């Protein structure tokens, strides 16, 4: 028998999908399921996005497009990032991908040779480890537990960068923790980054529109403009505009990196479909009221989730300030039982919780923090309180 490539053996199916699949099966079997498992926005883009897509179809060329992205898309993104504080960029600093996920994969291919090191903090978005595994990079994981609010400290970053990783990958606001770095925290980390000129810095900031409490969105290049020659900012229309299925990711960074990703695009995907580009242009340059309203809604939901979780004795939940996730430390439950089912770890906890209550959450070990679980609070509004009550009840029934 011929063998699959070793690279495929290293890639694991997403733990998030495993839980979501199990929840789907239980639902199909007639169970009342509340899903806190999948990180998708609970809204659709505005009518102007669909109108732009329809209009585009009416004069679609049916041809391949630009490997870097359609000019109109690049120009819309330039304007968009200017409002986020990235000034002085041109089309030559940009490139696109089929979602931020593919942009990140392209960046890994563009910046990492086999055996090179990539540093990132845990808890991390599951795909970071998978992308590193697929390109054969070594991971240098900086553990940031609940006791430090899941946030990377300058001292931890300093120690990791001293090992001279090729890439430092940063995520703000964070999936899975919902943490947001303040202007001061970003400035303190940027101080460390300037000390290590041989490390590329990728900032995966696709939740930048979902920041609460007036904290604002900050990037290393805002703190230290000279970092522009090494920082690659990654964005996406998925979470900001409720468009995860449209698959549009974008980057802004040094020209050499944008060019490398564009070359990879010419080999991997060629271009985005015209209709998709037109929809993304409309989203980026049209009215921004939907993301603003949704951000406020998520902040209100955060309050409900945070209050419910911190009311559970022994559960520790650093207060999320962005995205749409909470990441409570549930380790107080380990070693206990629920209705005769022993709970030894996060995976057993989430399995027992789903089985007993119908609430689906993702075990923290998928994100490199086995003491916690991820709650994504984008479910229908009517399910939020009942889902949280079921979690509270589950804890109360532990023996
Ligand atoms: N980065 C993070 C932190 C994410 O949570 C996600 C999606 N869950 C992505 C990137 C990928 O987004 P996209 O839909 O643009 O591929």
UniProtKB/TrEMBL annotation:
Residues of the Aminotransferase class I/classII large domain: 32-391
Q: Which cofactor does it need?
A: pyridoxal 5'-phosphate
Tell me the enzyme class: transferase
UniProt GO BP: amino acid metabolic process
**Classification via Gene3D superfamilies:** Aspartate Aminotransferase, domain 1, Type I PLP-dependent aspartate aminotransferase-like (Major domain)
Among Pfam families, the record links this protein to: Aminotran_1_2
Assigned EC number: 2.6.1.-
Per UniProt, the keywords (alphabetical) are:
Aminotransferase, Pyridoxal phosphate, Transferase
> What would you give as a GO molecular function for this chain, any one?
transaminase activity
Q: According to its UniProt record, which protein family does this protein belong to?
A: Belongs to the class-I pyridoxal-phosphate-dependent aminotransferase family.
Q: What is this protein called?
A: Aminotransferase
Query: Which organism is the protein's source?
Result: Rhodanobacter thiooxydans
Q: Lineage of this protein's species?
A: Bacteria, Pseudomonadati, Pseudomonadota, Gammaproteobacteria, Lysobacterales
């Amino acid at each position: 028998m011929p063998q699959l490539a070793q690279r495929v053996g290293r890639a694991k199916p997403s733990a998030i999908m495993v839980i979501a699949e199990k929840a789907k099966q239980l639902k199909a079997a007639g169970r009342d399921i509340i899903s806190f498992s999948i990180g998708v926005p609970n809204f659709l883009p505005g009518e102007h996005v669909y109108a732009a897509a329809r209009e585009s179809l009416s004069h679609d060329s049916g041809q391949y497009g630009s490997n870097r992205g359609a000019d109109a898309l690049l120009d819309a993104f330039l304007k968009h990032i200017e409002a986020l504080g990235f000034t002085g960029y041109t089309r030559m600093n940009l490139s696109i991908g089929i979602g931020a996920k593919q942009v990140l994969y392209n960046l890994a291919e563009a910046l990492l040779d086999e055996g090179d090191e990539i540093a990132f903090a845990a808890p991390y978005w599951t795909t970071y480890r998978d992308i590193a595994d697929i390109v054969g990079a070594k991971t240098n994981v900086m553990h940031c537990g609940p006791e430090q609010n899941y946030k990377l400290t300058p001292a931890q970053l300093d120690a990791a960068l001293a090992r001279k990783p090729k890439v430092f990958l940063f995520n703000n606001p964070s999936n899975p923790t919902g943490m947001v770095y303040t202007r001061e925290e970003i400035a303190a980390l940027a101080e460390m980054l300037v000390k290590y000129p041989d490390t590329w810095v990728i900032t995966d900031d696709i939740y930048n529109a979902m920041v609460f409490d007036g904290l604002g969105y900050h990037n290393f290049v805002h703190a230290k403009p000279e970092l522009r020659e090494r920082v690659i900012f990654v964005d996406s229309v998925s979470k900001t505009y409720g468009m995860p299925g449209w698959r549009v990711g974008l980057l802004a960074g040094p020209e050499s990196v944008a060019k490398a990703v564009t070359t990879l695009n010419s080999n991997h995907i060629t271009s985005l479909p015209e209709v998709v580009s037109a929809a993304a242009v409309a989203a980026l340059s049209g009215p921004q009221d939907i993301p603003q309203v949704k951000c406020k809604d998520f902040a209100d939901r955060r309050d409900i989730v945070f209050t419910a979780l911190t009311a559970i004795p022994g559960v520790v939940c650093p207060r999320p300030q962005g995205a749409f996730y909470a990441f409570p430390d549930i380790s107080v439950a380990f070693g206990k039982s629920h209705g005769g089912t022993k709970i030894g770890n996060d995976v057993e906890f989430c399995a027992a919780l789903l089985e007993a209550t119908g609430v689906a959450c993702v075990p923290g070990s998928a994100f490199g923090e086995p003491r916690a679980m991820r709650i994504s609070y984008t479910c229908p509004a009517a399910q939020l309180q009942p889902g949280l009550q079921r979690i509270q009840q589950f804890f109360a029934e532990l023996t």
